[in-house]
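ugh ok fine here u go
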Amino acid sequence: MSNMYERAKSSSEGDEMKLFVWGPGWGLPSIHAESLQIMTYVKFSGAPVRIIECENPWQSPNGNMPFFQQDSRLLVLPTKICAYLKQKNYSCDFGLSPKQNAEVVAYTQFVSEAFEPALQYFCWVMDSNYRSVMRPCYSKRLPWFYKFWYTDRRLRYSALEFMQSLYKHPLLNSTESEVVQKAQDCIKLLSDKLGTQEYFLFPHSPSSLDAVIFSYLALFLKIPLPNFPLKEIIRVTPNLERFVARILHRYYGNIRDSLTTSSYFGIDGHATRKPSDEVQYPRNQKILSIGVGIAVMLAFAFKNGMVEFGMNGTRAEVNEQEDEDNF
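structure:
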């Protein structure tokens, strides 16, 4: 099998299409849902896109992965990346009827509304899961000047804001129950729709809907979270388990063999490269990044009343409790 991250041979260097994604782990080609979704769409569509493992937010135009680049064009949303590839005549939805296209839109929205809150809640908002699995996994991959703040201030804080936009009190047990029930209902519906077929719309060929569903189900099955009831719920629907295994086998093959030699992490999430092999960054970039990190942390501290200046403006009272306890 060809290398998952190899350069697309049909594209010239000047107009090469590149997709930058979070790297592999937990037996998956990516530890990140959106990265996994767009990688799978690229696989399904046959687009000559070079997939590049990127775990340095500095390289991204918005500080997130995935992002897509061709010449001076930069795209950061999976929907826009898919639309651009479709303009280039690379799509796995060309054979769909108008009714099936409508199904793709409806089911994609339904799945996202059911699964995204579950992903954000159990991975990033639930404290025990975040501390034991998610923060160590992402922090170990990040460049050293991002390790101190990116997972807490960017990834976890974004998840908390997302949950607060949906639920008034996202940390209550009642919220967890509602999140689980909604995801469970979606799992049941998807299992019924898939039936004995290999894919959701076509019996033997995938669509963009399959890429969306796969990206969530694969993570739900593979992330080793200590508290995650959805994994067992999915395991009682063997057709969905087979759906995930089928795509991993057919489109990703042996994940370990298809990684680049410079990959920092293996499929189990452990480092495969010595610390001395880490990428060296320019000194001015390190200084600027430290400054940005300090500014972000100070802004967060002021916003949450953790720092108060006295009348003379020369003394500060700082709450020494760790920032993450505020979550």
